[in-house]
Specification:
CATH architecture of one domain: Orthogonal Bundle
Strand content: 5-15%
Number of helices: 5
Radius of gyration: 21 Å
Shape: elongated
Strand order of the largest sheet: 2-1-3
Order of helices and strands: HEEHEEHHHE
Largest sheet: 3 strands, mixed
Length: 179
């Protein structure tokens, strides 16, 4: 009887693993936020977080745009700030992209719009109004965009001298890329 029970458990395990290999669209039980979609032309995975219907990691074709990634993630939520991304930006392999909220998430009625600065057009003094941007970081942002052109993604802030992951996490809800 014990041998039969062990055999059934092993057979069930083999069947489950087989289905996961055969159908990669099945959500991972260990991480329900990761959804993989595949086709024969897939090149790499990209993660999206924030104000999208299905945040997670998606396997998409080379040359995927932000708009295509948002579509794969089920679209934007009603609280998504469309000023925080360019829909035509070509995304890079392995990166995580963030869609910031328009309204303060602690405001139950979602009527208090978050005050934001434009990292592509605002001067250093205006950038300093955001908690986390010191005068040296604000000047570095202005310098970075004059040397490299406008920011294409909010995540590009991490390339600015003085902005690491902690500062990026702190300010990402308070910046936009365009009006």
């Amino acid at each position: 009887m014990v041998k039969l029970l062990i055999g059934v458990v092993i057979a069930a395990f083999v069947v489950i693993v087989g289905f996961l290999v055969i159908d990669p669209n099945i959500q991972s039980a260990t991480n329900p936020n990761v959804v993989l979609t595949t086709d024969s032309n897939s090149k790499y995975s990209i993660t999206i977080e924030g104000e999208v219907e299905k945040p997670g990691t998606y396997v998409l074709q080379d040359g995927t745009t932000m708009d295509q990634l948002i579509s794969a993630a089920g679209g934007l939520t009603s609280n998504a700030d469309q000023r925080c991304f360019f829909s035509t930006t070509i995304l890079e392999q392995g990166n995580t992209y963030y869609v910031a909220p328009l309204y303060d998430e602690s405001d139950i009625c979602n009527t208090l719009e978050i005050s934001k600065v434009n990292i592509n057009t605002d001067n250093a003094d205006t950038l300093m109004t955001i908690n986390g941007f010191t005068s040296s970081i604000s000047n570095a942002i202005v310098s970075y965009r004059s040397e490299n052109g406008q920011f294409e993604t909010i995540e590009e802030l991490e390339e600015v001298y003085g902005i690491g992951p902690a500062t990026y996490q702190k300010v990402r809800n308070y910046v936009i890329l365009h009006e």
